[in-house]
Amino acid sequence: MGMMDRVKIMVDQAESLEQLRDNLLASYGDLEIGQLTEIMAMGFAAAELAGRFDVNEGS
User: Fold this and answer.
1) Interatomic CA distance for residues 39 and 7, integer angstroms
2) Other residues' Cβ atoms within 10 Å of the Cβ of residue 41
3) What's the rounded Cα separation, in Å, for the pair 10 and 7?
4) What span, in angstroms and rounded, lies between the C-alpha atoms of 31 and 43?
5) 8 Å CB contact between 27 and 13
6) Distance of alpha carbon 33 from its chain centroid, rounded?
7) Of 46, 35, 38, 59, which is closest to residue 8 (Cα–Cα)?
8) Domain map of the chain by residue range?
9) Model confidence pLDDT, tens digit, residues 14-58
10) Can you give the C-alpha Rg of the chain in angstroms?
11) Which of 32, 46, 51, 53 has its CA 20 to 30 A from that of 11?
């Protein structure tokens, strides 16, 4: 399973952006700041897209 797959699972399971942030930090907090920033950006972008999809689908 790739990193993006793991991030997607975290996005799907998180009930808030704060929980997503905490989960990302718990899983990837040992990375260098540049790598961590990239992963956090991927996670928040995925969460935003998932939210937009849900709005478009009416859920």
Assistant:
1) 8
2) 10
3) 5
4) 15
5) no
6) 16
7) 46
8) 3-57
9) 998 899 889 989 998 899 999 989 988 988 898 898 889 988 888
10) 12
11) 32
Instruction: Give the contacts of 20 (CB within 8 A, at least 6 positions apart).
Output: 10, 11, 14, 43, 44, 47
**Cα angle value 9/10/16 (rounded, 5°):** 135
Token pair, residue 51, equals 């939210």
Amino acid (one-letter) located at 53? F
Distances (CA, A) of 53 to 3, 35, 43: 22, 27, 15
5 burial type by CB count under 10 A (0-12 exposed, 13-18 middle, 19+ buried): exposed
Please give the single-letter amino acid code of residue 52.
R
Q: Kindly state the tokens that stand for 28.
A: 């990837």
Q: Determine contact, residues 43/35, Cβ cutoff 8 Å.
A: no
